[in-house]
Amino acid sequence: MRKNKRGFTLIELVIVIAILGILALYAVPKYQGLIEEARSSEARAQLGTVRSAMGIYYAKNHGVYPATLDGTIFAEDAVPEVEVTLSSGAVDRHNTVTTAETQDGTITAAEITDVGGWMYDVSAAKDKADVRINSKGTDTVPEPDKYWYEY
After folding, report:
1. C-beta contacts of 58-61 below 8 A and 24+ residues apart
2. DSSP secondary structure code for residue 31 in this structure
3. Residues 6+ apart with CB under 8 A from 57
4. Which of 67, 108, 37 is closest to 132 using CA atoms?
5. What pLDDT does 24 receive?
6. Are the CB atoms for 97 and 113 separated by under 8 Å?
7. Cα–Cα dist 135/126, whole Å
8. Residue 122 to residues 19, 63, 65, 77, 128: CA-CA distances in angstroms?
9. Residue 53 belongs to what H/E stretch?
């Protein structure tokens, strides 16, 4: 008797599916961690870009910061977008700039409105300025429970 064996048996298929399931258990959490790490790195890099553009503007304009943070000081003619987690847990990505009302050139935690985007404050004399990520959510990648606005 000659058996014409074609295909896989049910046991072989179940074993392959079980192995794939075990591999997925390890891969999915690692993938989620990579997404958070990428979001954190990008947000901190964008903050560095904004601060660098402000520094260049300050140097070119003899010690004066821009009155508003808009696209005119950036090479792309647009404020960079920033993607962060808000205190509600929602992930938000946009480039809206909220201007602080104190006009003292320093942003405090009380001034953060937690709507995403950027918070900008420039002193009345335009000789001191601060820009922060406008979120009270936490960034858990570089160090646990560091607020986005603390960068």
Report:
1. 58/129
2. H
3. 65, 66, 73
4. 108
5. 87
6. no
7. 24
8. 58, 12, 7, 20, 6
9. helix 10-60
Cβ(87)–Cβ(109) below 8 Å: no
145 DSSP assignment: T
Q: Residue written as tokens 């950027």?
A: 118
- The confidence score (pLDDT) of residue 2 equals 58
HEC sequence for 101-117: CCCCCCCCHHHCCCCCC
Largest separation between any pair of C-alpha atoms in the chain = 98
Q: Report d(CA 96, CA 98) in Å as an integer.
A: 7
3-state SS assignment for residue 54: helix
Reading the chain (151 residues) residue by residue, the pLDDT tens digits are: 556 667 889 999 999 999 999 988 888 877 777 888 888 899 999 999 999 999 999 999 999 999 999 989 998 899 999 998 888 988 999 999 999 999 999 999 999 999 999 999 999 999 999 999 999 988 877 777 789 899 8
